[in-house]
Amino acid sequence: MKLLSLVVISGIFFSLTNFSSESPKHGESMLTVHLPEFRLIPTTGASGPESFVFDFSGEGPYTGLSDGRIVKWLSNESRWIDFAVTTPTRCALLS
């Protein structure tokens, strides 16, 4: 069963990626992931994100922004909220 799961996961990964033997040109990525559908959600006041993480409850995603904020996505409201501040130069009280 574990082997079957590994084969299925590997197949999905390789079907979504496009590996090329050519060296990438400036500004190109070595790995291209083809996603069936996505929606760009803007952030205000900063650029980002670089990565996402979900908590153990499946909430989120959470992501860091260039101004030091960590924001959390509220899917039921379709918006980001400030979750934490990681820089002392940003004055904000978060509950």
Automatic annotation (TrEMBL):
Domain of life: Eukaryota
Pfam families: SSL_N
GO MF annotations in UniProt: hydrolase activity
Record's GO cellular component terms: endomembrane system
Cited InterPro entries: 6-blade_b-propeller_TolB-like
Signal peptide (residue range): 1-19
PANTHER family listed in its UniProt record: STRICTOSIDINE SYNTHASE CONSERVED REGION DOMAIN-CONTAINING PROTEIN, STRICTOSIDINE SYNTHASE-RELATED
Name listed for the protein in its UniProt record: Protein STRICTOSIDINE SYNTHASE-LIKE 2
